[in-house]
Amino acid sequence: MVAGLRGRGLVFSERVEEALLKVPRHLFLPESARSQAYRDSPLPIGDGQTISAPHMVAMMAEALDLRDGQKVLEIGAGSGYNAAVMAELVGPQGKIITMERHPSLAEKATKILLEAGYANVQVVVGDGSLGHPEQAPYDRISVTCGAPRVPGPLAEQLREGGTMVIPVGGLDYQSLLRVRKQSGRIMTEDLGSVVFVPLIGEKGHPSQ
């Protein structure tokens, strides 16, 4: 799987390649989907949510440029796979706070992450569109669900000089934006078209 991503130019740093190789993706999937764990496709994990395709996890990790010791906020924990990859990249001195609005998914993700040895990941149940101000500011913010716009609370919780990667657009498709905070200003860069499940919340899309 990882060799295929590198061959397609989606993984170009050794650090991201090593992180993807270390995380056993099958552990983060229901038993019924584990035979497909190393295909490059999103897969259902329950509650209408999906685990992102490996190429998207790789693209977001590369765009975030994660470093040892950083504090990262993730919006959309899902099964915890993306958080595990990021945990490898920030190392044991770093921390991942990952938010999930579905309590059942959050409970499963917490269990899998602990069993897989990721003690530097904290799963929080809540409205991800509002972020998690209790532990702000964050060096990096990773949003794994599509928002109608960059939520103000997330921009506020991003540290000066920090980077956020977020899909922004409608329900059918979005643009993957890399957002940087420089001198208090928000600068955005379009990384291309993507398709994510919607960010539901006060600053996201209304619940269906």
Describe the structure.
With 208 residues, this protein is an alpha/beta fold. The protein has a single domain (2-194), classed as Vaccinia Virus protein VP39 (Rossmann fold, 3-Layer(aba) Sandwich). It is 26% helix and 29% strand. The chain has helices at 2-7, 14-22, 54-64, 81-90, 103-115, 152-157; strands spanning 43-46, 49-51, 71-75, 95-100, 121-125, 138-143, 158-169, 174-182, 185-194. The strands form 2 sheets. Strands 5-4-3-6-7-8-9 form a 7-stranded mixed beta sheet. The chain has a two-stranded antiparallel sheet with strand order 1-2. β1 (43-46) and β2 (49-51) form a beta hairpin. α2 (14-22) packs across α4. The longest helix is centred in the middle third of the chain and has 13 residues, at 103-115. It starts with a helix and ends in a 14-residue tail after the last strand. The mean pLDDT is 94.
